Design the sequence.
C-alpha cells in the first residue's frame, strides 16, 4: 500500500511539473509612464504586451492609495498627445479598479477602423488618461495621463498643459 501511495505522489509531482498551458505572450513588451495629473496622488505605468496571434494586451498599474469600494476609474486610449483639446477616444480601456489599481484590456479595432500591431503601437501618436469618473464634473479630473507610442519619446510631461479630452470617438 505504501508503494502505491508513493507511486501516486511521484506521478502527481511529475504531472504538476509539466507545462500544460502554452505561453500566451510573444515576449515583446513596451512600457510607458503615467504621470500624476491632479491633486489625487496617483502615478503608474502602462505595459503593452504582444499576445501570440498578434493582439495587444494593455495593462495599467497605478501606484497610490487603493480602496475596498467597488469604485472604478474610466480609462481611455486617445489619438494625439495629452495636450490636445477634445482628443478623440481611440479605444475605451477596461476601468481601473480602486481595489487593486489595475486594468487589463485586450486592444481591439480602434474607433477609426484601424488595428494596431506591436510595431504600429510604437509609432502610434496617442495618449492614455484615467479619469476620476465617467461623467459629470469629476470626468474632467484626470488622475494620471501619459503620451504613448511616438509621442512618449518626444515629450516632457507638464500637468499644467493637460487638456480635458473629448468623449467622442
Sequence:
Amino acid at each position: 500500500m505504501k508503494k502505491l501511495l508513493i507511486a501516486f505522489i511521484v506521478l502527481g509531482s511529475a504531472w504538476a511539473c509539466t507545462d500544460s498551458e502554452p505561453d500566451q505572450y510573444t515576449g515583446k513588451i513596451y512600457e510607458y509612464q503615467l504621470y500624476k495629473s491632479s491633486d489625487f496622488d496617483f502615478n503608474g505605468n502602462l505595459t503593452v504586451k504582444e499576445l501570440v496571434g498578434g493582439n495587444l494586451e494593455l495593462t495599467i498599474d497605478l501606484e497610490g492609495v487603493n480602496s475596498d469600494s467597488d469604485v472604478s476609474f474610466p480609462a481611455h486610449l486617445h489619438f494625439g498627445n495629452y495636450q490636445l483639446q477634445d482628443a478623440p477616444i481611440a479605444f475605451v480601456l477596461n476601468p481601473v479598479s480602486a481595489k487593486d489599481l489595475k486594468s487589463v484590456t485586450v486592444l481591439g479595432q480602434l474607433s477609426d477602423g484601424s488595428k494596431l500591431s506591436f510595431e504600429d503601437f510604437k509609432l502610434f501618436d496617442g495618449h492614455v488618461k484615467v479619469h476620476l469618473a465617467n461623467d459629470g464634473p469629476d470626468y474632467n479630473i484626470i488622475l494620471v495621463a501619459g503620451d504613448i507610442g511616438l509621442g512618449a519619446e518626444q515629450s516632457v510631461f507638464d500637468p499644467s498643459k493637460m487638456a480635458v479630452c473629448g468623449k467622442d470617438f
Observations:
- The first strand starts at residue 25 and ends at 36.
